[in-house]
Design brief:
The chain has helices at residues 3-28, 48-55, 59-63, 97-107, 138-142, 147-160, 185-190, 201-216, 230-233, 237-247, 266-269, 283-302; strands at residues 66-69, 87-89, 115-119, 220-225, 256-259. With 316 residues, it is α/β, with parallel strands linked by helices. The longest helix has 26 residues, at 3-28. The chain is globular, with a radius of gyration of 22 Å.
Length: 316
């Protein structure tokens, strides 16, 4: 075979294989980018940050009317237990407010989100960074072919074989099978008694911008303070209250607040068995907190302080 013919054959074969790969990717569409995402149940395969960023392009807004914005502290909160609304858990492991702000920017490009449960916690604002990958629109192009896409297909294949494939379900909640019983070095430093909580200036700005963005899209905000084990919270109660007061400046009349670190929930916080490490809740305790939150939402709805549009579909 002549060199020119061989080159043309090689180019044609490569193009054919590439076209076939793109066709397969378009057909499987694991992030709901290319086919109608309404009523689909799409868990997060591959990289969790990339997966949630791409799912927020169309899937989340089409299937949910609310979001939970937080870090790993709330990542395993199954918001599907909330009876009154359909809430997608946007929380990321070791997530920062900058990363969460980027996810919210993505989902608010389309209508659908009416309420946001926005976490207010010292870890969430102690630094401003993208942890593992910078979340940008270029990830859409990578959805047609990338190393992460190969990992996605491996996860999907494992699932078809009945093996554990992903820990993040179709409503964004993560499954924590096991976490260390001691705080990591960062959390130990943050919760060291006698020192003020460090707040990264850029993170503080990003938090304010996130709040402004939600208001600009007429999304009602529920400020949420997750519970901390009493043995960790009590020695730093004064500093924690200072932190809460600092971020209270972002609130406006009509905003709602639920603080699981008040005396109303002291009994729950006093039970060490509710926590892996004193910060992250074990699964059963996380479910209890969501049910308490659901009860509070019932009250707000009855009082006319919170409103949801009816939304039907299988994703919970």
């Amino acid at each position: 075979m002549r060199a020119r013919n061989w080159l043309l054959l090689a180019i044609g074969s490569t193009a054919a294989i590439g076209s076939l790969a793109i066709a397969v990717n378009l057909a499987l569409d694991p992030w709901g980018l290319y086919h109608a995402p309404r009523s689909r149940k799409l868990p997060v395969y591959g990289d969790g940050r990339v997966g949630k960023y791409l799912l927020n392009t169309r899937y989340v807004g089409a299937n949910f009317n609310g979001i939970l914005i937080g870090s790993s502290m709330t990542a395993n909160w199954n918001m599907g237990l909330l009876r009154q609304a359909r809430i997608y858990n946007e929380s990321l492991d070791a997530g920062t407010v900058l990363e969460e702000k980027t996810l919210v920017e993505q989902v608010l490009q389309r209508p659908g989100i009416e309420v946001a449960f926005l976490v207010q916690d010292p870890y969430f604002t102690h630094e401003s960074a993208f942890r593992t990958v910078t979340l940008t629109p270029q990830l859409w192009r990578a959805s047609l072919g990338s190393d992460n896409l190969l990992n996605v297909y491996k996860d999907m294949a494992r699932e078809r074989l009945g093996k554990p494939a992903t820990s993040i379900g179709a409503n964004g909640a993560e499954r924590f099978d096991h976490l260390p019983s001691k705080l990591n070095a960062t959390l130990q430093q943050l919760w060291q008694p006698g020192t003020a909580f460090a707040v990264d200036p850029a993170a503080y700005t990003a938090y304010g911008e996130l709040v402004d963005m939600l208001r600009a899209h007429h999304v009602q905000i529920v400020f949420l303070m997750p519970p901390v084990f009493e043995g960790i919270l009590e020695p730093k109660q004064a500093e924690h209250q200072d932190y809460v007061r600092r971020f209270a400046t972002f609130r406006q009349p009509g905003d709602l607040v639920i603080d699981f670190n008040t005396s109303d929930f002291q009994d729950f916080r006093s039970r060490r068995e509710n926590f892996f490490d004193g910060i992250h809740l074990v699964s059963g305790a996380a479910d209890q907190i969501v049910m308490l939150l659901s009860r509070q939402v019932d009250s707000w709805l009855a009082e006319g302080r919170l409103h949801f549009s009816p939304q039907e579909g299988p994703v919970r």
